[in-house]
Amino acid sequence: MTYAFDWVDAFTTRPYGGNGCVVVHGAESLSVENRLALVRETRLSECAYVVPSDKADFGVRYYVAHQEILMAGHPTIATVTSLVDRGLVDLSQGRACFTLEVGSGVLPIEVQASADGPVITMTQAAPEFGEIHDPAEIAALYGLSASDVVGVPQTVSTGTPFCITVLRSKAALRRAVLDLDRLAEYHKARGLDAANAMEPFLVVREGETEAGQTFSRLLLPPPLPAEDPFTGSATGCMAAYLWHYGLIDAPVFTAEQGHWMGRPGQAQVEVLGPRQKIDGIKVAGQGVILMRGELRI
């Protein structure tokens, strides 16, 4: 069997920036085993598989190296970039709106033409605020101290859960090194296995460039890559946390990630609704087709 694919760098306007994702079209007949194997073969954090949908205009499923992930930001940007580039989304009027069914539900998508390529906006679901975490325990996962943490870390989900952890400085963010044994113990103590484990998303309230208002890192355990260049789903969760707890003054800002990896990425973020009743989060970015071809299995 052959399947058309695009390799897309998401949350960037240049090749080798942001976060890469392979988007496979017509993938409904592609087995889960082959979907997982392709992720491992590419060494990317995730791959996307376009499938039919009876709930939305398009369907897609996302996988990391060992399992399906219900909601993911950079594969959404990558998938829409691929759909537009292949002419499956009509941008002749300069703007298009449609729906995309992912594992966690249906995402409203808006695409706006611009001089440097389409700008893609996904509206993530209203956040669910979950478990509160001990700042000292989360800090210890990275060789940091409780004094490096602002406020109290909390699990937040707009489809995929992340433990949002705000750090006081870029110096602390740069010092962070994930202790895999401590993380495994932390998950075990909470009865979390590989299928439902969560990783802390570390953020500071300043950009790496003058354009940004936040800068983040997501350090990951095997079989995932050691660090994710840009994490769109976690960015939505982070935005909800910052707005809810009054840690940002305005609900609209620019999020940055990946610069220290040589893969700078950027998203425009807007939290919808008041601090105590958030309706959803808009996360917008662009993508670049790096390569195109046929998957032969």
Walkthrough of the structure:
This protein has 297 residues and is of the alpha+beta class. The protein has two domains: 2-124 and 286-296, Diaminopimelate Epimerase, Chain A, domain 1 (Roll), CATH 3.10.310; 128-279, Diaminopimelate Epimerase, Chain A, domain 1 (Roll), CATH 3.10.310. Helix content is 20%, strand content 38%. It has six helices and 18 strands. The protein has an 18-stranded mixed sheet that branches. A hairpin with an 8-residue loop joins strand 1 (2-10) and strand 2 (19-24). 46% of the residues are buried. The model has no long low-confidence stretch (mean pLDDT 96).
Coarse morphology: globular
CATH architecture of the largest domain: Roll
Q: What is the H-and-E element order?
A: EEHEEEHEEEEHEEHHEEEHEEEE
**Biggest β-sheet description:** 18 strands, mixed
Distance between the termini: 5 Å
State the main characteristics:
Diaminopimelate Epimerase, Chain A, domain 1, alpha+beta, about 40% strand, 18-stranded mixed beta sheet, about 300 residues, single chain
What topology emerges from the helices and strands here?
Layout: E1 2-10, E2 19-24, H1 32-42, E3 47-51, E4 58-63, E5 68-69, H2 73-85, E6 95-102, E7 105-112, E8 119-124, E9 128-132, H3 135-140, E10 149-157, E11 161-167, H4 170-175, H5 180-189, E12 200-204, E13 214-219, E14 227-228, H6 232-244, E15 252-257, E16 265-272, E17 280-285, E18 287-296
Parallel strand pairs: 2-3, 4-6, 11-12, 13-15
Antiparallel strand pairs: 1-2, 1-18, 3-4, 4-5, 6-7, 7-8, 8-17, 9-10, 10-11, 12-13, 13-14, 15-16, 16-17
